[in-house]
Design brief:
The chain has 80 residues and is mainly alpha-helical. It has 3 helices and no strands. 0% of the residues are buried. The mean pLDDT is 86.
């Protein structure tokens, strides 16, 4: 009974090692090999563009909020 557990654990270990060997190959492996660390200039550009996008989306959401908060009652009073 103990040998069955040991054999099963060896099989599991072999499968894990085979998956680890294949990790650097295939479609994901090519992407990982081409990946590199961004320069400070690239990183700061990405951060600033992301912050700008967040601000724009927030401003659009706030404008929609204002339109529904103040425009709704105004339209209701206008069309009555």
């Amino acid at each position: 009974m103990a040998t069955g557990i040991v054999e099963r654990s060896w099989e599991i270990q072999k499968r894990i090692e085979e998956r680890a060997k294949r990790l650097g190959k295939g479609r994901y492996g090519r992407v990982l090999q081409m990946a590199r660390r961004p320069t400070k200039d690239e990183y700061s550009r990405v951060v600033s563009l992301t912050a700008l996008g967040i601000l724009i989306i927030g401003a659009v959401g706030f404008l929609i909020y204002l339109i529904f908060t103040y425009g709704g009652p105004w339209l209701k009073g206008l069309f009555g």
